[in-house]
Amino acid sequence: MKLTNRSKVVSNKKMTVGEKLYLPAILKGMGITMKHAVNTVVNGSQTIKYPEEVKPRAKVWRGMHVLKIDDEGRERCTACGLCAVACPAEAITMTAAERKKEDQNLYREEKYAEIYEIDMLRCIFCGMCEEACPKSAIYLTDRLVDVETNRGSFVYGKDKLVETLENRIDVSGRQSEEQKKLV
Ligand code: SF4
Ligand code: SF4
């Protein structure tokens, strides 16, 4: 049964002499190349010399995640697992642990993520984890995932995901007014 009208019937029509010479196609291709060459001369190069130059990103850009801490430096994540359940790519894994008394300055809640990992090769940067989190603990940022040379290095743990007090990541552009009031 035909589901769409997108398919085309292919005909084996004989090529004309011009088509056999490929000249029209070659001239057409050269015309496009010349058009771009003239455009570059007139308007300057359109090439961004990345990474020295970085193209401005849209406000809705979703890049590498950050696990947030509160103003006292305690991790907000309580290892509830909602982000992992919401993740359509099954990119998030974690191991929960109970907070020890002496660790109250490290973790905000009695349960915390001892291990928290995101496989950046699986992630599709959809932002569902961010939406699912009841603790405002995870946000996507405008940072890029690093270039790595082996697959295992793309599994980012807490060492790469958790922000520090000295290097807080601004996520105010992605927070609701209520979330902005949280400390
Ligand atoms: S951004 Fe989407 S795919 Fe990536 S970890 Fe979050 S929920 Fe999963
Ligand atoms: S990041 Fe948020 S949703 Fe995910 S485990 Fe931590 S508290 Fe739960």
TrEMBL record:
EC identifiers of the protein: 7.1.1.-
Function: NDH-1 shuttles electrons from NADH, via FMN and iron-sulfur (Fe-S) centers, to quinones in the respiratory chain. The immediate electron acceptor for the enzyme in this species is believed to be ubiquinone. Couples the redox reaction to proton translocation (for every two electrons transferred, four hydrogen ions are translocated across the cytoplasmic membrane), and thus conserves the redox energy in a proton gradient.
Family matches, as InterPro entries: 4Fe4S_Fe-S-bd, 4Fe4S_Fe_S_CS, NADH_quinone_OxRdtase_chainI
Keyword hit for NAD: yes
Membrane topology: Peripheral membrane protein
Domain 4Fe-4S ferredoxin-type: residue ranges: 65-97, 114-143
Reaction(s) this enzyme catalyzes, per UniProt: a quinone + NADH + 5 H(+)(in) = a quinol + NAD(+) + 4 H(+)(out)
Protein name: NADH-quinone oxidoreductase subunit I
Gene Ontology CC annotations of this record: plasma membrane
Gene Ontology molecular functions: 4 iron, 4 sulfur cluster binding; iron ion binding; NADH dehydrogenase (quinone) (non-electrogenic) activity; quinone binding
A GO BP entry: aerobic respiration
Record text on subunit structure and interactions: NDH-1 is composed of 14 different subunits. Subunits NuoA, H, J, K, L, M, N constitute the membrane sector of the complex.
Pfam families attached to this UniProt entry: Fer4_7
PROSITE patterns, alphabetized: 4FE4S_FER_1, 4FE4S_FER_2
UniProt-annotated location(s): Cell membrane
Binding positions for [4Fe-4S] cluster 1 per the UniProt entry: 77, 80, 83, 133
Protein family (similarity comment): Belongs to the complex I 23 kDa subunit family.
UniProt KW keywords: 4Fe-4S, Cell membrane, Iron, Iron-sulfur, Membrane, Metal-binding, NAD, Quinone, Repeat, Translocase, Ubiquinone
Catalytic class of the enzyme: translocase
